[in-house]
Amino acid sequence: MRTLPTLLLTLFFTAVATQASSTASTAPTPAPATHTVLLVGDSLSSAHRIPADAGWVTLLQQRLDRSSSHAPTVINASRGGKTVTDALKELPGLLASHHPQVVLLELGANDAILGASPAELRQHMLQLIDRAKASGARVALLGFEIPPQLDQKGCARMLHDTYAELAREEHVVLLPSLMAGISDHPALLLDDGVHPTASAQALMLDNAWPTLRPLLLN
Q1: What pTM, to 2 d.p., does this model score?
Q2: How many domains is the chain built from?
Q3: How far is CA 8 from its chain centroid?
Q4: Tell me, what CATH number does 152's domain have?
Q5: Among all residues, which ones are annotated catalytic?
Q6: Which has the closest alpha carbon to 61: 51, 48, 74?
Q7: CA dihedral 35, 39, 44, 46 (to 10 degrees)
Q8: Is residue 21 part of a domain?
């Protein structure tokens, strides 16, 4: 036969255990961790000579936010004139600061125009990919087109081939062209004949979305 003190202790611990179980079952589910996407690009992604909030990267963030209640945050580290060599210097700090789950690379045009050889461009892009992958991030290459009238050196073909080879060999995602249907339409380009207008930014996003959506929202 249990004594009165023993019965009281038993009832006390039973009540505590029941309350703890109830509290645990009703505790709110933690929100999923926020994911970060790092875009390293040049003037095509930096809203060159147009309002910053009209750029395709801002439109991408808005579409992601509409598509998911847990959309990733896009960090746009693009700058006009940026080369792959510049990005190699900046990437370690960007990775350390933002810890992205995905890295998007939109680079190479300035290197090609400045005379980088296919071998140099390939080597530097490979280093970027390797550093991003070493951080644990998934990688996507964003290709683009150069307006035919400005492509006297055949840069477009070199960039296209280099991106395609790297994507295949390194098993990274490839968007063939961010500028498809834009580079050959003067009305969608600024007066320099190179950079997209504000009205072209939604088209750039539409070009990118089928490739980026499964990468950024899964």
Answers
A1: 0.84
A2: 1
A3: 61
A4: 3.40.50.1110
A5: 43, 192, 195
A6: 74
A7: 80
A8: no
